[in-house]
């Protein structure tokens, strides 16, 4: 009996030691991803995500995770597929060094995710698998076993085509492409043009998060364009368009859509205003982030660290011309509606970006820029009140990048007069809002004091650094006299 007791005691000791070793090594992934744990998806997903909060793993612990994930990905249960993909996505986003994450790029994981992508069962499972496969490809970019990005993007594209109306899958595909393109050398090879063709229609996506991510991807793809020849001819084998080619294409697409907006309201296609706004914002991304690989005579290529942007200024200013002329004319008859108002705000902000990026290169087009200023100054005051933020960005960009554009006395006088009127209009609007928000009290004297504080703000002590309308007027008078 004593021998049996010793055997039982030894067995218990070994079992407790094994459980303690597992607890120190990390969570029990085989239990978290088992078929029994997947019955309640909400609870199981929270348990998997919480397991990474205190996860301090090494390469061996990542290998344990991979061994538990592989069967879950090959399972016929869609919930197990989802949990397995979710665990891989969370692991790829952990703070572990890339050397520790190398087991994630193993062949069993790739085969499992490929099986999920070939038969996801639902858009949510497909989206999670896309995010996981792209994230692992990005975080193991320096590994010899890195999954080729063009294979990953090709599989993700197939899923995207299988769910053409799923915003979840579209967003996952775009975010996954951002992950792959975020590394220094994505390894797309000659497949950049294919990716460009897939991403381009999504640039006008109704969801802002998707369209912004697409703009980042397209801007990044312009960095992989091959250098043009000394005479400026394009390379037919370039994996992606150059930045100026992308801007010309965006301008052409915008002008086609904008012609539709000019029609009567009942003939304007649905979402045309939003798509125009998205294209203008895309132009801003290309101007700020796009790179043109221009090969000068005697130079075969450009430095990878350089960021030369060749702006098609004539095309860009023509787009701004059309929008400013049309919308200012419409504003003269009636206030702009929501879609057109957003488009006007975006085109003014893009004009500010163009001035900031082009700088003195915009001086040959100074008459055009001044014409924009005059058109906006001739518009009703309501246009300035509604778009004061964008208008201010445009003026500040001119003052910082090309102040000589404002060296015209009549323009400066009109501009400063208009700004003073806008300040007074803003004070009146603020006073009206403050009166509406003032507490209503029964005492006549207290109510009079409250109204006095709102109606006569000049009687109060102004904060340090504030400028009154009268003081601004005196400064403007001195400025115009010196012009």
UniProtKB/TrEMBL annotation:
Keyword line:
Signal
SUPFAM superfamilies xrefs: ARM repeat
Signal peptide feature range: 1-18
Record flagged with keyword Ribosomal protein = no
Keyword Cytoplasm found: no
Q: Which domain of life is it from?
A: Eukaryota
Protein name, per record: HEAT repeat-containing protein 1
Q: Which organism is it from?
A: Noctiluca scintillans
